[in-house]
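Re: export button greyed out
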Amino acid sequence: MLVWELDTPALVVDLDIMEQNLRRAAEYAAAHDLRLRPHTKTHKSPELAQRQLALGAAGLTVAKVGEAEVMLGAGPADLLLAYPVIGAAKLRRLVKVARSARVTVALDSLTTATELSDAARDAAVSLGVLAEVDVGVGRVGVTPGRELRDLVRGLASLPGLEFEGIAFYPGHIRRLDEAGMKALDVLDRLVHSIVADLRRDGFEAPIVSGGSTPALYHSHRVTAMNEIRPGTYIFNDRNTAACGACDASDCAAFVLATVVSTARPGQIIIDGGSKTFSSDRLAGAGDEAGYGLVLEDPRAVFVKMNEEHGFVDVRACDTHFRIGDRVRVIPNHVCTAVNLHETMYGIRGEEVVAEWRVEARGKLQ
Amino acid sequence: MLVWELDTPALVVDLDIMEQNLRRAAEYAAAHDLRLRPHTKTHKSPELAQRQLALGAAGLTVAKVGEAEVMLGAGPADLLLAYPVIGAAKLRRLVKVARSARVTVALDSLTTATELSDAARDAAVSLGVLAEVDVGVGRVGVTPGRELRDLVRGLASLPGLEFEGIAFYPGHIRRLDEAGMKALDVLDRLVHSIVADLRRDGFEAPIVSGGSTPALYHSHRVTAMNEIRPGTYIFNDRNTAACGACDASDCAAFVLATVVSTARPGQIIIDGGSKTFSSDRLAGAGDEAGYGLVLEDPRAVFVKMNEEHGFVDVRACDTHFRIGDRVRVIPNHVCTAVNLHETMYGIRGEEVVAEWRVEARGKLQ
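Workaround output, generated via the alternate export path:
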């Protein structure tokens, strides 16, 4: 079947581009002696996680217990749950996962750690823990210094838990311009001093885990970091391209859509809106930046969305779009787009050669 | 089980409020002799569609063929597909649906109508059609006047199709302030003249279908309209309340979430972000309006979301939130939120008494 014969809207992955993205990151990580523990939130598919493992990934990262359960299907030796696990229901499921793979949890409070320790002890399993540190995003994570020391001391004393090091998310570093490079220098010094402080207090941090897609290929500049957890790099998206971390031609995933109305002059309506792409705007930009990149004509502007309607301004286009025409659109944020689809299709050239269920889709718990 | 014992994030529906919303709309429609053909995109559940039919709904509205297939589960006599159906794959499925229920399609081009006519003839079924008119939203729909006349004339001549009238979506009328009431007057005159023009050309429009949730209880002011298709009214949401069409206490659906981090002073992180609520901002407002209404403390501001993290500013709150605390959040846009959940829970008071699968979730095609 050719890609143009797929019913729409459909999420399509160009395998050549995806494999190039996967290889490049794997080779970079190997060259710089970085453990690569890719975040599976982007593809949400055990089949694609398997490819990451086959290329040398040290393990997989997930955000929710439900994702961990699904990702066991990829047969990882090691799973990092980069999210605080709260409550008895989730802990029961987590310790069950820990019978099939080594499980490590990144967390930022002794409340969370104590619950986790109790669950591990009751189930007679051992769980790894990473102390989550805030390095500037202001999301989760304790402040470096006294707060971190208290957390690490507590973690080291709790039965059933093994202190494995620290985790952080440098999501504030997006664009690697002069300011971004300076922020990377600051991060380098900060992480260095965090590790040195812990050592002075008698704690070794075998794992120093950070990394995101935008700064992926600058990870070696954060010299004390030895593990990276990028997610988006497998596909890339309009956000990744907009921050200069890849070209549009490195974006492996697109939504195939159909023109369903041309009733308004200068506008086409495509059969995908916020239920197909997500409402995510271009990071750091306003509505005027639009909701995706239309590959058929770069002068088409994806200006607005309703749930099932994509509004594309075609006034500046040479292309004359007609009802039934197919268009390929690179989403702003591919992770939230993948979460909206039941299926992804893999293509080589124009040929559809793979079909994957998005198994970890909507695993909110 | 009590609602507080549900694992989180979970989508919860207060049945007393929902039933009141359903009854109120049914009684209003009956009192004003309006056919009520509710849009099922909001609840995406055949069980809830059944309740709408039991209260006198004349049929159900859907946007996609996949939703029509699911909604057959509610046993409707009549289904309106308020979306142009394009392409052989969808048409094959549509005519199959038409063997179990009367199917009507709203469309805005003869290209679409001709494909539909061919499919109906091949399958030996008859399909209803409504001519979609643009009344000011600028989305789909032909312009009233010559364009509409040409479309209706074409529809009436195509075999397998039965011209049933016109459809429009007055989504531009949201706030029923002075300007909104004026817009409603303009709409009243416009729809009146559309129907009169068609009659002059020899076409009766038995169905004049419009209506949305924000202007629901003013529908009788559009005197020529005899059918309404509200969707959101079953639950209402922060958008509905913000435009003055309901109170916060009329919002039946909320997301139950758990506080997972309090590491940053003045901020809590809850275990739901854009993957749980959708990234939809408050309609017509900026980011500063936030992403939902936190019922536990109205001074809490849901300022930001990542995929799994909800950032809530609690600096102005009296409540002291701790890790593990549950919070109830009314989403900005309940339709896109429901689409992200596999399950909805119904409660009476604090007791969980129902569990529905969101069967039409993610039916993009």
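The mean pLDDT of chain B is 97. The button fix ships in the next patch.
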